[in-house]
């Protein structure tokens, strides 16, 4: 069965529909420094309205709630919206896409895209985001990315990337082609190193399985990937036979401001 949603890439629609129950389990949280970035660089706080665009099951959404801003979560995949609404009943959860936001003109102070902008990186999406932002409002782009400067992480990424097909990814850099964008300032960039600590099962195996295009694969193809991932864990001294491991990450945060 396919799960086609207009404006949503098939790997996201199919994978996240199948994997809504387990999507967030193996994914890292965000570094503490991000709270200051949201407050100082995106000017979020009480009295402000923030949109979590492509919110998924709400992994990032609590970071916005913690600012004290009113939060609207926009997500096209029904199964993901259901999980988010159940977990965060205080959040206004709406169906929508980056190309068709369920919001009025100049209605919000910030739009955040966490682990999502690469799926809809286009001039059309940016024009729609600009439409709903107040003058001087901010667009924030956030990605948690494994630190491939570590050799075993680079090997893990190679296993995953070999199966990406036509799925948009942060690492390709193609999302940058949407910039510079009319009506927005130049992108400002921040890097925040951190780690994801837990069992290898959770922070490596389950995290790989939660990747959209891997969730969309038939079970026998996932089994091949799992064998490769477990073989890598067994061969790496810093991972093998360890009850707790840390996967190094870098959070990349970008800001652009609506200008007239």
Coarse structural class: alpha/beta
| Model regions low in confidence, pLDDT < 50 over at least 5 residues | 9-19
- Rounded to the nearest angstrom, the radius of gyration is 18 Å
The CATH class of the domain at 10-146 and 168-195 and 250-257, by name, is Alpha Beta
* Quaternary: single chain
Order of H and E elements: HHEHEHEEHEHEHHHE
Number of strands: 7
CATH topology label of the domain at 10-146 and 168-195 and 250-257: Rossmann fold
Structure description:
This protein has 260 residues and is of the alpha/beta class. It has a domain of 173 residues: Vaccinia Virus protein VP39 (Rossmann fold). Helix content is 32%, strand content 22%. It is built from nine helices and seven strands, in the order H-H-E-H-E-H-E-E-H-E-H-E-H-H-H-E. The protein has a seven-stranded mixed sheet. Strand 4, helix 5 and strand 5 form a beta-alpha-beta unit. Helix 7 runs antiparallel to helix 9. About 4% of the residues have low confidence.
């Amino acid at each position: 069965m396919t799960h086609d949603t207009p404006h949503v890439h098939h790997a996201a629609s199919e994978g996240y529909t199948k994997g809504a129950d387990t999507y967030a389990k193996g994914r890292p949280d965000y570094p503490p420094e991000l709270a200051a970035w949201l407050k100082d660089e995106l000017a979020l706080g009480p009295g402000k309205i923030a949109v979590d665009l492509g919110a998924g099951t709400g992994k990032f959404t609590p970071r916005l709630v913690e600012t004290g801003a009113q939060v609207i979560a926009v997500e096209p995949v029904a199964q993901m919206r259901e999980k988010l609404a159940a977990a965060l009943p205080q959040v206004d959860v709406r169906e929508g896409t980056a190309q068709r936001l369920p919001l009025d003109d100049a209605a919000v102070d910030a739009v955040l895209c966490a682990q999502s902008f690469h799926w809809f990186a286009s001039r059309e999406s940016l024009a729609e985001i600009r439409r709903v932002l107040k003058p001087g409002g901010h667009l924030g782009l956030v990605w948690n990315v494994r630190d491939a400067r570590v050799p075993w992480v680079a090997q893990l990424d190679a296993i995953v990337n070999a199966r990406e097909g036509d799925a948009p990814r942060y690492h390709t850099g193609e999302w940058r082609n949407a910039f510079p964008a009319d009506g927005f300032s130049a992108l400002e960039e921040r890097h925040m190193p951190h780690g994801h600590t837990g069992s290898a099962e959770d922070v490596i195996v389950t995290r790989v399985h939660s990747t959209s295009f891997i969730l969309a694969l038939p079970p026998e193809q996932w089994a091949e990937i799992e064998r490769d991932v477990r073989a890598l864990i067994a061969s790496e001294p810093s991972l093998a036979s360890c009850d707790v491991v840390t996967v190094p990450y870098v959070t990349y945060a970008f800001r652009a401001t609506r200008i007239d």
